[in-house]
């Protein structure tokens, strides 16, 4: 049993992680932590997330001595803010822990990225270089060897899993930037009080037009410019991405299908992508599951793909768990189905 | 045209009032005010409530000189917090304005009521004595003469309109307290950021069990003890009250129907109650309308009534407008249908 | 007062029309009709649409003698299925009635269009030629002269109002087809029982990919190929269209803004478009209003526009009413704000 | 491994059952059946319930030879209509199968019950006598010995689990009938197309006032008259019951708490009831769980209880699974947490 700690356990992602670790046959949920000055400190997790009552009643311990945690930990899950992950990760890494970071702090290499898109100067370029991007279906070999895994964001996961097979096979005309329209449930904004997330104010609406930091995360990892427009939807969880792209000369429906099959079909049951063919993906079918559903249709030289995930699971927690499973040689969907 | 001012215009109730006054043929929407230190000060109302763009773009003026407003005002609508209404009303009254207060500050007479249920000592007992309770269908004669009208709360309106005809006719066994279960849309909690109103946290749930201050408002005005259990529902607006009561000896379905008809049917088109007979009231049918729908069914010695209103309209703004109409001899539903 | 009849009045669109005609100062709501074998025949409209109780209680008369209706009618609103409108319209036209058709039966000229996209051969090519497309903000001069107005569909209205000013001014690169992603509330599918519209089955999902008949309606009237992907959203009413396009060489943010201003700003208050500049359109702000909100943002050579309407109002009923107002020289938003 | 068959597997309850049986360590999901003329016959279950894709892709076999199923079955789950269960159960029983019936066909003993409330004459009085009511927390000893378990309805489960401890201890004044107001998610009406369940028509509303057949089920099993008013809520799953009762003379908050503790606390972790004390139950906390949350508050001689379950789980499928676990000596919450 590997001792597993969750730092930043009070939010929606933390609660999902806690439940997964609790049910995992090879992990021991050793402790839940929040920042030392959190208003939720010392409350049982189940007081904040009532559905966990009787299941995970562990308290949210204030994190005053990270080194003491590191000394006990085999695995550390960071469900913390970007800067907090940036500051904490190296200490856990230096003590030999496996670190799975759900923030954006180690997702994209490059000198200027963090100052430009996250508002802080990255201080740990060496670890940034070593970090492996935890897109489970595509980076499993690297994940197996990594000590620091940067779990992708929710929009990037839905977008990349759909586009990557086609780009890899040269089936997309990259001169005409793919258009990614995505709608996220409100839980994507985290567990907090705000006017924007207030029940009466939520209504389908685009935000962050031409300015969301998941755009460069997607474009960098796909090595392809994209136009990405996120929307807030009036539902609690789930993301649907609808992607329109132009096919490269010579590409057709058959080649697209073959690329999808090659990417995902051969390893059926071993990963979390489900191919829908010409059906369209639906949020309802993926919510509360670890899966990414992908459908697509070709007409002439255009393709429309739909890709759906649970933003808190495949877009965060269950993808982190997939990475843990890969890293430690457990079946990839352990504790997930 | 009567000069009409709305104080506390930034909330959901204020926005509804503004639109009604704007469309009213005999009222002039002279000004919108917010407290002097409001973060919304000087913004156009339509910046907060985008549906009003192009209709009511008036700014939210900070209220620094209430006396100057009073000097211009024929009618003042107070959509302010209880204490603010308590403090402001008398100044407007002393200048001869008609004051329609949507807060709880003047709803219930009695020495201890405000210290017990609202947490402040009432300083204006004379005006509290003179205030008329603006339950439009029942107090129109008094409203016609009043200078200060205390518009009832949302739960009390739905509850009283259903029970009052039966109690008036002695058809309810008051020894067995009527049970009022009511569910309100989230807008009832006002326009503000809070965890409780956060989209992801809202879920049907009772609150304020045995402790909501609308219970004594209902009981006092009905002169009948009641058990009142409010619930937060997962919808934006509307209230449904389901009321279970024991009939008095000798009461039956026929007498109940006659009492309902007598109370509401004779003045059809002149007021905002719609009788449904044995059908049940539905929130969908009253949302965005000024109506209270009431259905009921008798079996043996028990009766179940359902009563539905739009909490922001018949439970606040449109009832205030009904009172304005009554007070100034306009047809009662002017600007409302 | 013009005698106005609504054929096909039982649906959501019909109910909205009935209420508007009822409140219109120059129209007389003379009758509501449904097909002769409708299960709703002879019921009061308010039995189907409870919110209209006490407002429009007129019965839904079975339409057995259209000629008798035509003899009385100044204005006929057809809220009927495409084939029914196709079959009925000419009779009313031949009797001199003004006909406002909310179906697709007269929206697009061309020999093959109806056999290809609607599954029937059009039999009234002369009237199809004469029909004026009722996109109110763009065709008012033609509408003033027309006897048959084909009111645009909901998706085409949201899409065209956003794109037309830019295409007119040559600001869009038509070689790279604009991508229109749109999400509609469930009421767009009409008032009927079906698994797809069942409460438990509704979940954000694309449908009709590369195959929806609103695509050719949009492309034909804009004279520009477009990729149009409709989605079903988990809300009752409203449409949000998010449109991504490439600008023509030389086009920039300033020219875009000028084109928008020229199209819509000069006639403020006279039409139903509201410009949001760089803000994004939101469904909540247009639901229950007659407005189309349009926002946009330019970056480099790309533009993203968001356009929101109430699908039952600006996407159907209120646009029909705008056309009636234009045709009869009433202020364009009469009965609408 | 016990061979387990689900008859009537196409609905929401069937899908939940299939997933539970699939994940149960001691059960083998041997087959899924639908009625021979079902439109869903031969489709994979995951075609109807997309979230099960890749998990339960078994086909829905048309049930043409029940005896052949019985010959293979250790356990039969009937998620069928009342009459179908009534007709099928005895055949499976005669072959020695354990039968867990989720319909109402064997829930209440007594000659007239089925003709009065279900519209058919019960033909299997002997099995009706032998059937054990599967309220897991209360009847475990009888369930251990039973061959036919009648799993309680959703409203009765939420209501009885809250009231039973108090009635057992004589703490309720039975002369004043407890008032049960309950709101159910739309999935309670089953997977089917209907106007009532149509997305645009659903709105919080009472139904079946004084006439729902769960009232006699509750009253009989509690041996106490109750007033039960069900409501349809605008959410997919979950039930919240708010119960108001008068305490018996001498009863007080302390005795109530003791009765609750005695009933549920002593067997913590062994059953599916969670006590909330003075907190109120919330649908969000129980949806997708097997738990019933119960809160309560006493004031004077009255008590208000709130009780929440997932209608498809503790109100149907997970309670059936609890019964299977009890009957076969597995830990009671196997496959449930």
H/E element order of chain A: EHEHEHEHEHHEHEHEEHEEHEHEEH
Oligomer: homotetramer
Total count of strands of chain A: 14
SS element count, helices of chain A: 12
CATH top level assignment of the largest domain in chain A: Alpha Beta
Described by the principal axes of the CA atoms, the overall outline of chain A is globular
Total number of distinct structural domains of chain A: 2
Chain pair with largest interface: A-C, 35 and 35 residues
How helix-rich are the residues of chain A, as a percent range?
25-40%
The portion of residues forming beta strands of chain A comes to 15-25%
CATH architecture of the largest domain in chain A: 3-Layer(aba) Sandwich
Distance separating the two termini of chain A: 20 Å
Strand order of the largest sheet of chain A: 3-2-1-4-5-7-6
Please, what is the average pLDDT of chain A? 96
Q: Tell me about the biggest sheet of chain A?
A: 7 strands, parallel
The name of the CATH superfamily of the largest domain in chain A reads NAD(P)-binding Rossmann-like Domain
Stretches of chain A where pLDDT is under 50 for at least 5 consecutive residues are: none
Structural class of chain A: alpha/beta
The Cα radius of gyration of chain A reads 19 Å
> The CATH topology of the largest domain in chain A is what?
Rossmann fold
């Amino acid at each position: 049993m590997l001792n597993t700690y969750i730092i930043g356990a009070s939010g929606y992602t933390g609660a999902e992680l806690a439940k997964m670790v609790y049910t995992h046959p090879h992990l021991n949920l050793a402790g839940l932590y929040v920042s030392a000055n959190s208003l939720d400190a010392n409350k049982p997790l189940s007081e904040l997330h009532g559905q966990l009552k009787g299941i995970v009643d562990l308290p949210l311990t204030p994190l005053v001595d990270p080194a003491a945690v590191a000394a006990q930990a085999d695995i550390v899950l960071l469900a913390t803010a970007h800067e907090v992950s940036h500051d904490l990760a190296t200490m856990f890494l230096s003590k030999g822990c496996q670190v799975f970071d759900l923030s954006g702090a180690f997702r994209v290499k490059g000198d200027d990225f963090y100052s430009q898109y996250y508002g802080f100067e990255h201080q740990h370029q060496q670890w940034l270089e070593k970090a492996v991007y935890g897109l489970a279906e595509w980076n499993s070999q690297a994940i197996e060897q990594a000590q620091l895994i940067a779990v992708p964001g929710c929009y990037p996961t839905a977008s990349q899993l759909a586009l990557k097979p086609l780009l890899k096979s040269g089936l997309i005309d990259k001169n005409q930037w793919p258009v990614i329209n995505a709608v996220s449930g409100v839980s994507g904004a985290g567990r907090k009080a705000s006017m924007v997330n207030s029940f009466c104010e939520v209504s389908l609406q685009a935000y962050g037009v031409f300015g969301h930091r998941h755009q460069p995360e997607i474009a960098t990892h796909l090595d392809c410019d994209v136009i990405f427009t996120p929307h807030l939807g009036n539902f609690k969880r789930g993301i649907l991405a609808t992607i329109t792209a132009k096919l490269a000369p010579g590409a057709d429906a058959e080649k697209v299908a073959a690329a999808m099959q090659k990417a995902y079909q051969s390893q059926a049951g071993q990963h979390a992508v489900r191919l829908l063919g010409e059906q369209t993906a639906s949020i309802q079918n993926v919510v509360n599951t670890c899966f990414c559903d992908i459908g697509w249709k070709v007409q002439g030289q255009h393709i429309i793909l739909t890709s759906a995930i649970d933003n808190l699971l495949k877009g965060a927690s269950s993808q982190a768990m997939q990475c843990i499973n890969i890293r430690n040689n457990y079946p990839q969907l352990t504790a997930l189905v």
